[in-house]
Amino acid sequence: MGDRHRCGRRSPERQPGRFPPRQPQHGDRCTVTDARSFTDHVLVTSKQNGGQARSTGVTGAIDWTPDAKLRLGMDGGMYRLMLATPDFAGMVRQDDIAGYLNLRAAYRAGHDDVSLDAHVQSATIAPLGRRGATSSVNLTWKRALTGTLSLTVNASDILDGSKRTYWTDTGTFRQAGFDHFVARRVYVGFVKRMD
After folding, report:
1. Sign of CA dihedral 182, 186, 190, 195
2. What is the CA 37 to chain-centroid distance, rounded?
3. Cα Rg for the chain, rounded, in angstroms?
4. pLDDT in tens, 31-52
C-alpha cells in the first residue's frame, strides 16, 4: 500500500453536556486512486498507489437530557481536505472544505420507546473528481408487551438519502454517475429477554 503516517492530538475526555472540540489531522503519503485506460476500445479500471492526501479539521459533540423521558444529542465536524494525485499530464492538486452532522433524539413514555437519528455528509473531493452529499434518517419504535417480551419496528433510511453522485475528470477520461445502495428498509421483530 505504500508508506503511511498519521499525526494528531488527543482531545480531553468527553463529559455529558459538554462540547469538547477536537482538531484531528491526518495524512497519507501514498493514497490509493482509480486508474483507467483504454485497451483495444475496452475500458480497463484498476487501483494504483500514488499521490498524497492531507486533512485537518475540528469535531465536537454535545448530549442533553432535558428530563427523564427525553434525550438529545449531536456531533459533527468540518475539515479541509487537500489531495495531490498523479494524472497523465502531471500532478493534480485539489483543495476543499467538507463536513458531517449527526443528530439523535430518544423519548420514553410508559411502555414505548421512540428514537430518531439523522446523518448528513457533505459533498467532498475525491482523487481526480468529486463525490456528492449523502444523508440518512432512521426511526425505531419499541413497545414492551410484557416484562420480558417487546415488539420492535425499525425503519432505516426513511428519506432514501443514500444515493451518491460522483464525477471523475482526468486527462484521458471523464465520467459522471451515481451509486445507489438502497438502504431503505422496515424491520419488525420481537425481542425476548431471558431472565
Report:
1. positive
2. 30
3. 22
4. 555 666 666 767 676 665 667 8
CA atoms within 13 A on the CB side of 172: 14
Distance CA 126, CA 85 (A): 10
Reference 134, options 150, 123, 125, 144; nearest CA is 123
Residue 15 has pLDDT above 70, yes or no: no
The domain tally of the chain equals 1
- In the numeric block, which cell numbers belong to residue 9? 492530538
pTM assigned to the model: 0.71
The range of the structural domain enclosing residue 146 comes to: 4-192
Write the secondary structure of the chain as one string of H (helix), E (strand) and C (coil).
CCCEECCCCCCCCCCCCCCCCECCEEEECCCEEEEEEEECCEEEEEEEECCEEEEEEEEEEEEECCCCCEEEEEEEEEEEEEEEEEECCEEEEEEEEEEEEEEEEEEEECCEEEEEEEEEECCEEECCEEECCEEEEEEEEEEECCCCEEEEEEEECCCCCCCEEEEEECCCCEEEEEECCCCCEEEEEEEECCC
- Across the beta sheet with 112-121, the strand order is 4-5, 25-28, 52-64, 70-87, 90-109, 112-121, 134-144, 149-156, 185-192
